[in-house]
Each structure stands twice: as structure tokens, then as C-alpha cells.
Amino acid sequence: MSEKNNMLPNRPRPVVLTIAGSDSGGGAGIQADLKAFMALGCHGLSAIAALTAQNTRGVTAIHRPPRRFLRAQLDALFDDFPIQAVKIGMLGTVPVIETVAEVLAERAAVNIVLDPVMIASSGARLSERRALDALRRRLLPLADVLTPNLPEAEALLGRQINNEDAQSEAALALLSQVRGGVLLKGGHLPGDTLTDLFLQRDGQCHTWQHRRLPIEGHGTGCTLASAIAARLARGDSQLEAAGHAIAFLQRALGAAYRPGAGPLHVPDALRAMA
């Protein structure tokens, strides 16, 4: 058999980049993103914006690589790969936010999904308070899909969101700050039924409802945003990507497990596609 025939077949996959923090416990951040990309048939790239000492009990330390190293990661990836979507997670500082915004603008990046991570599931704050303004000014205008939970939306808007009417009003306020749509997750509202709301650029609103599961999730926002990015890379519209990603996350949560001694459950992204 010739060397050519011995080669594995070339099967191109959509390429998706995550720019986020690394979770040493493997449940959220870069690790969750790459699992979601793989489960949805994409090739995952990663640029690490922060390193955490973290497990299912909490975050004990955060280390941020130098700004020039983050820039080197991003340049290396954009120089080589045809990146079809970008998921942004934990960034944390003004220099990091500015670096990411500069590179994405220079490279004319498309299908940017922004998950404005500020507080970990354990309650640990992951972003400097002064970084919030930089996030609003530099990254929100680049977002094709913004995926905050309610505490993150409250921080971005400076207002309380304590019912579904306020959730709808908040989504509309955030829509004016992004170039695409807003998926405002409703998991922090009380009740057994949760409502996720997606507001499109044209003002059309779509909702999904699901029952609250008796688990403490970890990495759910990362998995959802990554799934949206993967579906956008595969050619879905923003609404289609949001709907498919929500269904994917629900399947992953149905197969969730507790990997550590702490209370947090991790969605099983790979079993979600089984």
C-alpha cells in the first residue's frame, strides 16, 4: 500500500476558538469549552486568559499570564487556522479585555459569543470591578451573541432583575449594546420552571422553558456559550444556534455527575451527543 493510501482521510471540521480561563478542576472554562466543541463536531482552539487553582469546592487562586503572551497565543491561532467562531469567557482585567478586543477587531472575527463571566459557581469573583466598564466599552459592541446569567446582566446594567418582566426589559437594554442577539438565562429566578429568553437584532423574542434540576451545576454557562459558538460555526442562524445549544445543555445536565468531593455537578457534554 502506498504512503498516500496509508494516510488518514482529510475530514475538515469547523474551527472554533475559546478565549477564557482554565479550570484546573476540569468542569468549566477552557476545559468545558473544548469538550463542547468536540461533542458538536468542531476542532477547538484555546487562548488561555487566566489560570485558576480550582476544584468543586471553590477557586483558591488566579494567575493571569502577561498580556503579550495572550497576544502571542491569539496571533499564532489566527495566523494558521480558519476560525469560524469565537467564544469568550473569563477575562478579568482591563489589559486582557483590551488585548482581546484589539485582536478580534484587527482580524475581523465573526460569530463572537460573549459569556461575561464575573462570578464562579462557587461564588468567587473572577473579574476586577473596574474591568466591567472595559467589558461594556470594548467587547459588548463586538458580540454577535451575548449570554449573561441574571447576576451578570445586573452587573452590566446596574439594576436588579427579579422577575420575568424585568428579564425581558434587561434583554432589551442589553440588545442596544451588542451587534447581534442576547440570550438572557433565567436560572437565578425563583420557581421550578426556568425561562431562557433570546432577543434577536430585529426585536423578535423567543423563549425556552425547562424544569429546574435538583443539582448544583458547574460550567453550565461555559458549555452553553461554547455550544452556541459551535453551532454558529456549523452554519446555524443565531436563533437556531441558541435553540440547539439549550437542548444540548439540557441533555448534558441530564447526564451530569459529581467528579469531586464538593457539591458541584458537571454537565456531561460528550454523553449529550450519545
UniProtKB/TrEMBL annotation:
Keywords: ATP-binding, Kinase, Nucleotide-binding, Transferase. Coiled coil: none annotated. It comes from the Bacteria. The keyword Kinase applies. One of its GO terms (cellular component) is cytosol. Its EC number is 2.7.1.49. Residues 23-262 form the Pyridoxamine kinase/Phosphomethylpyrimidine kinase domain. One of its GO terms (molecular function) is ATP binding. Gene3D superfamilies: 3.40.1190.20. It holds the Pfam family Phos_pyr_kin. One of its GO terms (biological process) is thiamine biosynthetic process. Pathway: Cofactor biosynthesis; thiamine diphosphate biosynthesis. The keyword Zinc-finger does not apply. NCBIfam families: HMP-P_kinase. This is hydroxymethylpyrimidine kinase. It comes from Pseudofulvimonas gallinarii. The lineage of its organism: Bacteria, Pseudomonadati, Pseudomonadota, Gammaproteobacteria, Lysobacterales.
